[in-house]
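ENTRY TYPE: protein
CONTENTS: sequence, structure tokens:
***
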Amino acid sequence: MADPGGAASFSTQANALLRKNLTYQKRNVWSNVRLIMIPFYLCVLLMVIQVLFDKNFNNSVENQCGCQCIDTQCLNKTCGLEFSSPGQAFFCAIPSPPQWPPLLQVPRPESRAVSTSSLGNRDLPDDSCRRTGSCPVTILFTGNNQSLGTSLTENLLTSSVTGNSSDILSILANNVLGTAVEADITNYLDPGIASDLPIYSIQPRCISNATIPFSFGEKPLEFKKELRCVEGLNLWRNTSVEVNDEIFKGYRRGNSEGKVNEIAAAYDLLNTDRNNFNVHIWYNSTYREDLGDRPVTLVRVARSVNLVSNAYLQFLHGPGTRMLFEYIKEMPKQETRLRLDIASLIGPLFFTWVILLLFPVILSSLVYEKQEHLRIIMKMHGLGDGPYWMISYAYFLTISVLYIISLMVFGSAIGLNFFRLNDYSLQFTFYFLYVNLQISLCFLVSSVFSKVKTSTVVAYIDVFGSGLLGLFLLQFLIRDSSVPRVWIIVMELFPGFSLYGGLYEFSQFAFRGNMRGTDGMKWKDFSDSAMVEIFIIIIVEWFLALIAAYYIDKVSSSGKSLLFFLKNPFKKTPSLRRPSLQRQGSKVFVEMEKPDVTQESEKVEQLIREQSTSHAIVCENLKKVYPGRDGNPPKLAVRGLSLAVPSGECFGMLGPNGAGKSSFINMMTGLLKPTSGTGLVRGLDIRDDMDRVYTSMGVCPQHDLLWETLTGREHLLFYGRLKNLKGSDLKQAVEESLKSVNLFHGGVADKPAGKYSGGMKRRLSVAISLIGNPKVVYMDEPSTGLDPASRKNLWTVIKRAKQHTAIILTTHSMEEAEFLCDRLGIFVDGGLQCIGNPKELKGRYGGSYVFTMTTSSENERNVEKLIQDVSPNAKKLYHIAGTQKFELRKEEVRISEVFQAVEKAKSNFTVFAWGLADTTLEDVFIKVATTGQAFNVFA
């Protein structure tokens, strides 16, 4: 197997991860196709909604110019005003718009001002006039010169309608006409004339119930109306404050008494005199309707200006002077069609869902790596944080950009104005900035979750909640001009709302552009829209989320302190201090009872004192204490472990479950931070240099950490590149690894790992840990789940690999430990009880034979007497259902004497089975573990 040329560079690691991601993406191509088809389906759905809306509303007969058939089959039609109803006339070509008399907006009869206690003005009529519908239309005056104001009030309203002139407009122009009907967005058809309500002639004095019929316009915009006289009441107020207060209390939505007292208009003449005409006009704007943030309904204020201007002229030059306001008319127009773009109006909801759909996809991918420990296993094999962040971010950004481009292409191709009218570069910039924010948020939020299912549920709640709350809450507040803009900005700090806010701006520009036949939002409109604030919010949150995500990742995955960024990068790691027996308390006595463990500690002290790098792994007084929870005391998992493992040695760790072996391995691989003490791996401290340690380390975890869709070969190619293998060396190393673990032949190497059996996955995990000849390898029960033949083969592979590698191996198989390990350490309750090679341990703890005999129950006493005769100091180890096991000290017995005694016993009672065996490693393990646990409990 080729030897790597040192630690892999940044570019090599990035290349390895990129290739792995692209391969993984290739395996999931149909998932990507389904993902990209979602925006296509939603765009098609929007288009279908728009087509149905066009058919049933925009293009309905009621919403287009009227037509008449000119043949029996109605193949040919002629269209125009003469064939249209009043509602259809709006859409016809109008080369000569109709002339409508100017109207003054007046309150409805039941809303006109009357005397109330809250107003305090007794010159208003009693509220009994409301029952008869005879309340006057009130107009207020104020100013600096009351005598001049009184003159103007007398000139403001003319006498009753007179004359039978055929020119009805000239007659009406000399009178003050009013209507209680709101205006429309144009004057092609005045609702005040087209409605069934009467037009009021506002006069100084009316004859009771006087009405005068008139006809307006030409067919089809010809209306028969009646003028109903209503009295105009001009009242003087001393100050503008009084006027303002009276109007405020009579506001159309009701005063403190629950009554509506509307004033038609009010004039503040200010400093007007014969040489200066200066006036302020109050008019009622509550009839104006808004669409978005722009007023679209006309306000009837022109007649108010004309009235006071005429009154001033007559004050200067007498009643014969008049500035005639004859009519109001729109500009000529061509035939139009109703173009309500419903797809653009509901687009923000749909496209919020489409873009946010990437959030659960990216988040689940990151949480999956965390849940399956794939991120940490890549890190353990040498993948640095820098390459991981750069490639992962670029990978998700590329997918997001392609997704967004697909959305824009789909939407434009099927004709959605939301995309076609708004500037493409502006749209792309907005989407690009937001997907960057979204990716940063995914990295940040992934630190909170450890399960894919939980993160997916929460992410989809965010997707649908953002769209629905944006539609029913944020959009409502944006359209309400009374809501301060600062509150909208506060809401848009939530990323889903900032996305909806930007999409809403695009929708409004597209809707108005389609309505007017113009473009949507362009860059020139950018500074005049809310997009400026949204862009700033997205950019700032993007950088903050990215920095926070990277910081949290450094603290959580690398085990760094919360203030790691404040440390001096040039400061050298302090030398390790020698462990002192005084600070270890009762450990002095323990080590005196275990000379091999004491000798190992002294060896570690010597290596550290000499700063020797001859040993690949050196642990000094390594300790791990888990804090107490739920009222339980702290748990001491590792008790001051000192160990030195040279290169070329396989050190086996034996111990019962819960002894602390996994805690030790996790500290050495960077998953846990030591409570005290430390470890050196090839001279690098695991507390500060774990990133450098990873470059020369291989790990075979207890549970197989594999990508289900990648093949065995692709796994080894990826990890081989992380170990700096390239070109032919990489291919050769991968093939040799596959052959060594019997995964090369029969197409197994190119099958997805998800289809492997448990034993095949285990062999692949071992091959991954050994590829690239790492200098240090940790194996946690590597042969678990293998059949005997595969186990023997795997042992051979590990034994061959240890020639230039230091291996620490945990196992429960005594046979595996004897075959592979040069030295063994038995771990009990967090501490080493003994260290040595298998022969030494059996010789040290195995100075006895194990005698087993099975008889009937009534002969058990005879067996015990037999053993007492052979070995007076024998110890019973086991007793159940007639089977007894004894430990016989070797210095007390001879094997021939045991055989003779058994033959003699057979003549006295029935012996079903018996056996004499030398001490095995398993016996040593049981003896040491039992003794160690009892001693630790006593201590």
